Amino acid sequence: FVLDEADRMLDTGFEPDIRKLEDLGLPPKEDRCTSMFSATFPTEVQQLAKHFLRNDYVFLAVGTLGGANEDITQCIEEVPQGQKKDRLFQLLEQ
């Protein structure tokens, strides 16, 4: 059983659907292999993890929890509608 983008699934209202899987015959958490992936690990995802994962689950964090990747620079550039594709190609060529 795999839950990928668990944080996004909760953000978009899929928690009732995820929980409904148990009613549809999902084996008990002690009898299944479950993997849960999330870019962030807010309280809601932690609660879902406690519900779906065995008590001996492994939590693996890559990078700083709650922090953004410092190697990525973000910027906003306003581009007229008809020039967006050309500007994108210019940026990709850099």
UniProtKB/TrEMBL annotation:
Signal peptide: none
UniProt keyword annotations, A-Z: ATP-binding, Helicase, Hydrolase, Nucleotide-binding
GO terms, molecular function: ATP binding; helicase activity; hydrolase activity; nucleic acid binding
Stretches assigned to the Helicase ATP-binding domain: 1-59
Gene3D superfamilies referenced in this protein's UniProt entry, alphabetically: P-loop containing nucleotide triphosphate hydrolases
Cited InterPro entries: DEAD/DEAH_box_helicase_dom, Helicase_ATP-bd, P-loop_NTPase, RNA-helicase_DEAD-box_CS
Protein name, per record: Helicase ATP-binding domain-containing protein
Originating species: Rotaria socialis
